[in-house]
Design a protein that fits this description.
The protein is α+β, with helices and mostly antiparallel strands and 172 residues long. 26% of the residues lie in helices and 37% in strands.
């Protein structure tokens, strides 16, 4: 869905010193040239630790004393998803909260006005929801099978997403 519906979104900008330095932190020096070989075309070739299910090449976060958490309201640059080139900027609202019980990481990715994904991870529980019915059906069917031990995958509700977005309204 992201590939098809992100066509109107701006391209990600990978041809910069920030991306080069960030990639160098995760990749062995001898593999770095291969990773950055298509950088001028706006692409990254993920290898090693960069070969992730979701590779976000740039995300800006700041600490909000009001929320006592790190937050981001700026678009994120998504390089790849499951090794497939995306290279688009996606509007996002992200929050990372550190508590004594653990860190909670929540993302809301808005591909277009009517297409979005909500991902919330806390204490081994991954709650997800989307406007993509096929995605929700996969989570509903395969989530319990993929859950092991303390790790669980569950479907969130539309109300959970709305509450998150209302709570994360940018402060004035």
């Amino acid at each position: 869905m992201i590939e098809a519906n992100a066509e109107g979104n701006p391209d990600a900008e990978h041809d910069n010193i920030f991306t080069t330095n960030a990639a160098a932190e995760f990749v062995e020096p001898k593999r770095l040239d291969n990773v950055l070989s298509k950088q001028s075309l706006g692409q990254l070739n993920p290898e090693g630790d960069l070969n992730a299910n979701l590779l976000i090449s740039k995300m800006s976060m700041h600490y909000s004393p009001y929320r006592k958490s790190f937050v981001s309201f700026e678009p994120v640059q998504i390089a790849t998803i499951n090794g497939k080139q995306i290279n688009k900027q996606i509007d996002a609202q992200i929050q990372m909260v550190k508590r004594r019980s653990g860190t909670r990481f929540t993302m809301y990715l808005e591909v277009s006005k009517y297409d979005w994904f909500y991902i919330d991870y806390y204490m081994g529980s991954l709650n997800v929801y989307s406007t993509d019915k096929e995605f929700n059906d996969i989570i509903f069917e395969k989530g319990p099978k993929l859950s092991q031990g303390r790790f669980r995958i569950r479907s969130a509700s539309p109300r959970t997403v709305t509450r998150y977005l209302d709570k994360l309204e940018p402060e004035n």
